[in-house]
Each structure stands twice: as C-alpha cells, then as structure tokens.
Amino acid sequence: MREAEPRAAAPLVGLAAAILAATLDEPRVLTVPVAGQPEGRGEGLPAGPLEPAHPTLERGLRAWVERQTGQSLGYVEQLYTFGDRNRRPGGEGAGGKGNGGQHALSVAYLALVREARPAADSAWQSWYRYFPYEDRRAGRPPSLDALTARLEAWAEAAPNPEERRRRGDRIGLTFGAAGSGWNEERVLERYELLFEAGLVPEAGAPDSLAGQAMAVDHRRMLATALGRLRGKIKYRPVVFELMPPVFTLGQLQRVVEALSGILLHKQNFRRLVAQQGLVEETDAVTAETGGRPARLMRFRREVLLERPAPGLRLPSSRAG
Amino acid sequence: MREAEPRAAAPLVGLAAAILAATLDEPRVLTVPVAGQPEGRGEGLPAGPLEPAHPTLERGLRAWVERQTGQSLGYVEQLYTFGDRNRRPGGEGAGGKGNGGQHALSVAYLALVREARPAADSAWQSWYRYFPYEDRRAGRPPSLDALTARLEAWAEAAPNPEERRRRGDRIGLTFGAAGSGWNEERVLERYELLFEAGLVPEAGAPDSLAGQAMAVDHRRMLATALGRLRGKIKYRPVVFELMPPVFTLGQLQRVVEALSGILLHKQNFRRLVAQQGLVEETDAVTAETGGRPARLMRFRREVLLERPAPGLRLPSSRAG
DNA sequence: TCAAAAGTGTTATCCTTACACCCATGT
DNA sequence: ACATGGGTGTAAGGATAACACTTTTGA
What is the largest CA-CA distance in chain B? Predict the structure, then answer.
C-alpha cells in the first residue's frame, strides 16, 4: 500500500465527501469502514485519491462515492481543502526525519441525498454519534456539563493570564455561556476547541465523551459540513434536497429540527414556510402522522426566481 | 522553465491570492504582471506552486505573496479550490493528445490588508477594472445596457425553448431584472454567465465590455473573492481589516459603499453601526473631511464576544 | 373521551426604512 | 451666505415571537 516516493514531493490530492440525509427524526451521514489505522479506528467518510482519469474534481468525487458505497449523488458543493495540519494521523514527526517533504491535501465536499439505502460496506449513522453535544432537541444534553468542566480546566491550565482569558472567551463564544447563547452553526469552532483542548479521541482523549472518532481529519470535514448546512438552510432551500417529493409541514419541521439540533415554534414555522412561498399544497392528505390527517405539500421551484434568499430563518424558540 | 513529466500524472497544486484593500473611494486588488500568455495578456493575481518547503497551504501562500509583491498579509481565508474547467488557457485539447492526464489545481485565498503600498512589479488596481458592471454607486452603469442586450441575444440563440427560458431566468436572477432586483453578492454568478455567453475576453470575446481580462482563471477567483467579501461584511466585522486604526463614520461608509458597489442611506448607516456596538468614539476629531469636523472612531473588539453575528446588514437605499 | 398532531387567529415588540431637521467648519 | 459633510430625532411599516384556541383523526 505504501508507494515509493514520487520524485521529491509531488503533492497527494484526495477527495472526500460528507454525504448527508435525513431519515425519520435523525440526521444521517454515510460512513465507510476504514482499516489500517493505528488502534484500529474503524469509521470514515467515503474518500479516495484524485486520479488522472477523473475529468474534474467533482466527477472524481462522484466516481469514488459510487464505487465505495453505491450511492449516486445529487446536490454537491465544495467545502474546503484541508492540508494544513493534522493530516497525518500521528501528527508531526510521526514519519521520521523527512516528514516535511510530501504534502497531502484533501478536497472535501458536502453532498445531500434523498434516499438512504445503505449499500456495500457503508452505513448511515446519526450525526450526533460524532457530535453528541450538538443535539439540543431534548434540551441541553447532560454530557455537556462534563465537557465544559474539562474545557474550563483546560482554560485554567493556560500558561499565562492572557491566554487563559482568551480560552475562556472562546469557550463562552462557541458553547454559549456568553450573552449570545447557543449558536448552532459553530460546529467546526466547537470541534476545533475540543481538539485543541485534547478532549477528542483524535487528539489523544481516552474516552469518547466528545463523540465517536473518525479516520484522519474526517471528523473535521464532517463538522465543516454540518455547520455549512445549518447555515445554508436559512437562506437557500436546500432542505428540500433531503425531503421526499411530497411531505407534511410537520415532517419538514422535524427534519429542520434534526439538522439544526434545536426545537422550533410550530405555529411560527408554518407561517414562515407558507408566507415565504417555499411550498405549495397538493390535493392529497396523509393520515400516517398520528393525529389529524395532514395536507401533503411540495417544494415550489418558482421561489428561486422570486426571492433573493429563500430559506428558513430559524429563531431559537422551543415550543411545541 | 518547463519540467519533465513527473511520473504518470501527479497533480500540480498552485496557490493564488486575491489581496484586497480600500484606498480613498476605490476598492483595490493587488495584481502582478504575467508573461508567457498567448496574445500577451498581462495581468494576474499573485500565485505560485505549492512547494515541499511550505509547512502549510496558507504559509506557502504568504511566502509566495511576499516574494512576488513584498506585501505581508493579515487576514487570510481560503476561498475555493479550482481545477474543474478552464484551468488550461486554451481549453480542451490545447495540449495535444494526452491532455487528460495531468490535473492542475489551484487553491485560491482571500486576503485583506490595510496598507496599500505597491512594491516590486505589483500594482493596486480597482476591482471595477475587471468588473465594471459591479459598480452601481453612480447608478446603473451605462455599459450594462449593451451587456444585457448581448446576454438576451445569447438567450434567444438557445438551441431549444426550454434552454432559452432557463437562460432568461438566469439573466434575470443574476442581473436583477426579476422581482428581486440587484443582488450585489452574486459576482461569481454574473461572471460565469458572461463567460458562458462568450462575452468575456477569456472566453473569446473581442472587446472588454465585460471588463479587463486576467491570466488563466484568476478573474473567476477574484469574482469569488468579491462575492464572499460582500456577503461577509454583513455578519462579520471584516471591513475593519481594511480600515486604518481610527476613522470617521463617513469614511467607513464610503469604504462599505466601495466594496458593495451600492450607495447607502447615511443616517441609517450611522445608527446601525452605533447600535450594533461595532465602533467606539475616540477623543479626537478630524477636520480633513470637508465640512464640519468629524469624530474619529475605532473598532470595538469586544463586539466579537457580545454579538453572534456582528456586521453591517446593508439595505439597498441610495440616499445621501 | 382523551391524546396527538394539524391548523387558524391575534397581539406586542422590535427592527428596518424613510423623512425632517440642526450643527460646525471652510470658502 | 452657502456649500459640505457631520450628527440627532421621530414616525410608519413590516417582520418576529409569543400567546390562546379550534379541528380532525386513532386508541
């Protein structure tokens, strides 16, 4: 599996995808088993090297995903190109003397799919397996207390007062102690803070209080994807990439809640969706939702031409 | 200068920077002369290949920029990794038979700097040299009429009615004919539309009605940078990366107007900045602005801890 | 009859937008 | 005096957030 050094140091370019879906009340990500890690970490995102046969980056990504998982992708968007730090599992100096020669980049993508049929070795996992503290639908998760306690300890252990204040500020800003409260979009900032504090398994933490680990920097990519999606649903109708062709308003709301990790105010959510012109009624109703039968809706494509930023500005309410 | 093919097809990775500043009433971008293009196109962004000696992508970028322009960078943010299309100047098939072998990626960055001292061969150019139609501070620019006329002609020339409607929709959406009006953030979408319609020099247009050309895909990168910055000033206090330590509210407004290409309502702008807590007064005033001496202000760093998204939501007004 | 979910109506509040106006300086 | 830019106040309109309440099904 290890190749001879190609000349001095031609960079290796990889492609990776955070493929997201929503089934029932759970947001999902498509994972594949990863072998050959130290300590046998087993989970990762679909990924593979950029090959000469790939006409474009995105086409190469689609090819890899189909090969590894059988899933064909719809909506695809480039996220970020990683390559700065933490690319090699062992960190600096793991590979011996000449470590600084070979660059290993990875171009990460976000993909949204409707159907969630797992194929081959792949599996759909809940997002919150990897980021348990990101799910606040049942209120502030209890594990957060232990986590922030350790973060505070890390801040206290700073080498000087200035750094201690800075760490404290970051904790407040990302985890919500500050006046601003919880901001569901700051997924990456929270993960990076936990990483720096040594609280994630990838950075040497003994347990998985901060979530299940992934191969190399895949969890960083996933965090980037979740943050981007949580932001984007507010000004682009991307949620509908995850919904079936017809759906009830209640189902739509539960998907949005699953993605954003917070509960929304029912009445206002319905009014918002309606008055934004994001959906239109169909003739059908369904009785499968529990109480009174609900009208089935569909996405209104025309909204793309009408509004500059059609989306679901979520407030922060928590009513039922 | 041309190297022997490294093995089969190791990808080439380049780094490029759109370095932005604001001087007087003009938004600026730092350019370097580019030789060796067909027809001698002369302008490009600072750029260079990723080298083994570069510890990270961003450090490599900073090194290249310093080497080429003498400019040291402050705020830096990754924009996008290009490599899909239009990377090779001549398009498909220009390099002969084995063209599909070697990938050429380019990781583009956005940088914001305060001082604008041109050094070495580099030069500060107005953004609107490359995108004249993006400057609406003096009202709708007259060149836009000719441009949209050609776009309409392109839409009419579509091979089938469906494609024609789609092209018409895109024109309306990006250039504002639709109900939504002009959206100053859609810089990239407008450039790509003009590119597809063959109206930019890079795509074979005979004149520069759609702006001055740049080397390879550098104008696409610049368009990405401008759109990103125009969006970001609304929810992050990035404008202050472009301002001197102290400034008047009028100067701040003129910089924001220069960046966004639209005029703002004076009184509301001042109120907005004040009530957001983005700035604080200093003791000093300056009489250099024309009429009544103005109070000098400075950026309030603490706002980062107080507000979830401190920025300058710009409306669309045009008052003085 | 009750639980559960769908669906409607109303009100208080805040933010955006616009308009009108005064202040201090240089020419 | 008047042009120029700095600076303040206030009112109308729309969007948001919170409230209470009715309707229709299945168990």
Answer: 69
- CB < 8 Å to A172, chain B: 305
> Within chain B, which residue ranges are assigned CATH 1.10.10.10?
235-306
Nearest CA distance, B180 vs chain A (angstrom): 5
* Contacts (Cβ under 8 Å, ≥6 apart) of B272: B312, B313
Query: How far, in Å, CA of B304 to CA of B278, rounded?
Result: 9
Question: Which parts of chain B are beta strand (E)?
Answer: 12-23, 26-33, 43-44, 47-49, 75-82, 104-112, 123-126, 246-247, 279-286, 294-299
Q: Which residue is nearest to nucleotide D4 (CA to C1')?
A: B291
Q: Which residue has the tokens 């309306």?
A: B172
Q: Which nucleotides of D are covered by protein (CB under 7 A)?
A: 3-10, 16-20, 23-26
What CATH number should be reported for the domain whose range is B12-129?
A: 3.90.79.10
Residue B205 identity? A
Residue among B78, B178, B180 minimizing CB distance to A81:
B78
d(CA B210, CA B223): 13
Residues of chain B with CATH 3.90.79.10: 12-129
User: Which parts of A113-235 are beta strand (E)?
Assistant: 123-126
Which is more confident, A37 or B93?
A37
State the pTM of this model.
Answer: 0.91
Answer yes or no: do A81 and B6 touch at CB < 8 A: no
Contacts of residue A104, Cβ cutoff 8 Å, sequence gap at least 6: A11, A12, A14, A83, A87, A88
Q: According to CATH, what is the number of the domain A235-306?
A: 1.10.10.10
Tell me the one-letter amino acid at A12.
L
CA distances (Å), origin B4, targets B8, B97, B166: 11, 17, 45
Per-residue pLDDT tens over the stretch B254-311: 999 999 999 999 999 998 898 888 999 999 999 877 789 999 999 999 988 887 788 8
Q: CB A85 to CB B58 under 8 A? A: no
- CA–CA–CA angle A255, A228, A12 (5° rounding): 125
Residue with tokens 């730090």, as numbered in its chain: A85
